Recover the amino acids of this structure.
């Protein structure tokens, strides 16, 4: 009996061993099957979840699992977009799972690493985002199935195309080489997630840190840009000013807020500078302005009711081209905001102080038979309280010189951004070489000019589309040349110049002028100038009897008394002038007409 027990034990042990081996084999087989089936299960479930949330086709090339690390690796993940360009694609996605995601609704990740992802983030014209369903909260009443939680998301070598389709012409900003970290994303809560990163922005660099959320949409980030080509922002600048950027590098520190983080649409605040700024005319593409440095302090922009303000704008060594064309239109409209298409004035501007340091202006007038050009340089001063929403503001104080070295000073109140030109300016020029203005003298006076200098005090009042000017001219050593156009004016210029000179060869005139500016193309500037000078002369000759005598009687073309060798003639002329002052039919205007016929 005792001898059989060990045999039975051996048999039992043998059977148990067989059972254990079979069980182990079954477990191993089940484990192998599970590890083989699980990737397909994850592929199917993850693809279905993304497809349901985005309404787009989802492809995954391969799924690999590392069980002991709770890690899933997706190779070649893509979400279809329009055409051949996916709205999202990543070469590799490595996700560390919370294993409850396999049995619970939704997905929870401790960490996700995206290698070389490409994302098209599209802001539709309706104000919605293309991937709001993926990154946003619940929809369709099934909140539990939409849960997505990511404790940490890392992006390396990424690309982001931010496409804004709300304007008439869609705008795209592209970031390459994106390195990004996002923290505590949870679409079951309405709080934003944190993010920080840096990227290549069209050859420059962009760094950012802040918060972002998709449902509801919110953005609040601090951005720092360095050496970003200004042309990168051409599409957005087109909504601010009609002139187009041709060159320049942007450096800025700004805070960008949008959605729930702002009560004024997209809001931008901060400061920045553009080095090597160059702008071109939107009509002909020619250079219209440049500056060694364009700096802005206290910048604010709000899109809800478009407004752009700045505490201080500094222009270092700026250059500006100002042109009057053949139709008497100017190119200054390039600096006004474009019309918003609704009949309104578009964006409102306000600048507390515009500082100009060593500036220059190239002025040309092409409506004359011979184009007139003049350069101003060494312009330094300030323009305060520029505001397109108010008229008559804009306190200007500017000093500089004309190309020939003549000093100039401009002071007054004038706002170039108002709906209508309005303000008052005083322009003072010293010792201007009159040869500079030869094209104007040819066009309006009909004479070439040999020599002369002018000191000008010009008081301009602009109100409701009209210009009223009081011009005080002091002319020295003025000498006209040959007559080039007898039809240019009916003024007896040579006679008048000779008569009006004092003993020192100086002429002083006060010339008023009134001019409509709302339709300059309909104005005959020659007639306006002639009438203004005529009024000034009538006021002048109505006082001194000697002047009346010389104008009406014996003045030669150079102002000499050619007819004074006959005493009787002078007495007769004087008597005639004396009588004319007592007759309404032979007043200053008639004297002027007689002098005109004598020239």
């Amino acid at each position: 009996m005792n001898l059989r027990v060990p045999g039975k034990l051996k048999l039992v042990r043998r059977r148990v061993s067989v059972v254990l081996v079979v069980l182990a084999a079954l477990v191993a087989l089940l484990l192998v099957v599970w590890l083989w089936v699980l990737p397909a299960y994850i592929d199917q479930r993850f693809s279905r979840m993304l497809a349901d949330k985005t309404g787009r086709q989802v492809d995954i090339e391969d799924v690999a699992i590392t069980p002991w690390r709770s890690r899933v690796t997706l190779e070649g993940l893509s979400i279809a977009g329009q055409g051949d360009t996916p709205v999202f694609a990543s070469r590799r996605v490595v996700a560390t799972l919370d294993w409850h995601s396999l049995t619970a609704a939704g997905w929870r990740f401790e960490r996700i690493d995206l290698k070389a992802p490409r994302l098209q983030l599209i802001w539709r014209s309706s104000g919605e985002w293309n991937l709001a369903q993926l990154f946003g909260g619940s929809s369709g009443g099934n909140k539990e199935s939409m849960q997505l939680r990511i404790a940490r998301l890392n992006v390396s070598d990424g690309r982001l195309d931010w496409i804004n389709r709300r304007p008439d012409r869609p705008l795209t900003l592209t970031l390459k080489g994106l390195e990004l970290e996002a923290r505590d994303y949870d679409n079951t809560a309405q709080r934003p997630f944190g993010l920080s990163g840096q990227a290549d922005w069209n050859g420059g660099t962009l760094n950012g840190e802040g918060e972002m959320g998709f449902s509801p949409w919110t953005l609040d980030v601090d951005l720092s840009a360095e050496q970003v080509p200004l042309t990168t922002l051409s599409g957005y600048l087109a909504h601010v000013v009609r002139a187009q950027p041709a060159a320049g590098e942007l450096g800025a520190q700004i805070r960008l807020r949008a959605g729930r983080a702002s009560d004024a649409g997209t809001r931008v605040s901060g400061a920045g500078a553009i080095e090597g700024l160059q702008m071109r005319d939107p009509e002909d593409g020619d250079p219209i302005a440049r500056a060694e440095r364009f700096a802005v302090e206290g910048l604010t922009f709000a899109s809800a009711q478009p407004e752009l303000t700045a505490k201080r704008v500094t222009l270092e060594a700026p250059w500006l081209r100002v042109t009057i064309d053949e139709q008497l239109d100017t190119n200054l409209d390039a600096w006004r905001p474009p019309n918003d298409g609704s009949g309104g004035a578009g964006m409102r501007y306000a600048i507390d102080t515009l500082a100009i340091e060593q500036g220059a202006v190239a002025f040309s007038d092409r409506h004359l038979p011979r184009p007139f050009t003049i350069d101003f340089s060494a312009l330094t001063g300030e323009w305060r309280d520029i505001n397109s929403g108010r008229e008559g503001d804009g306190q200007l104080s500017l000093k500089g010189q004309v190309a020939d070295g003549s000093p100039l000073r401009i002071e007054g109140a004038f706002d170039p951004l108002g709906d209508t030109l309005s303000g008052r300016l005083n322009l003072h020029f010293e010792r201007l070489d009159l040869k500079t203005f030869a094209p104007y003298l040819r066009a309006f006076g009909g004479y070439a000019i040999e020599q002369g200098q002018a000191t000008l005090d010009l008081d301009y009042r602009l109100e409701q589309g009209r210009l009223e000017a009081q011009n005080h001219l002091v002319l020295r050593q003025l000498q006209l040349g040959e007559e080039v156009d007898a039809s240019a004016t009916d003024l007896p210029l040579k006679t008048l110049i000779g008569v009006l000179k004092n003993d020192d060869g100086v002429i002083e005139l006060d010339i008023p002028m009134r001019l409509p500016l709302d339709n300059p193309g309909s104005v005959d500037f020659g007639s306006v100038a002639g009438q203004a000078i005529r009024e000034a002369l009538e006021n002048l000759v109505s006082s001194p009897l000697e002047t009346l005598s010389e104008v009406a009687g014996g003045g030669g073309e150079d102002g000499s008394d050619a007819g004074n060798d006959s005493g009787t003639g002078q007495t007769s002329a004087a008597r005639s002038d004396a009588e004319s002052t007592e007759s309404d039919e032979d007043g200053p205007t008639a004297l002027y007409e007689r002098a005109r016929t004598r020239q």
Notes: The longest strand covers residues 348-365. The two ends are 163 Å apart (CA to CA). The chain has a mean pLDDT of 77.
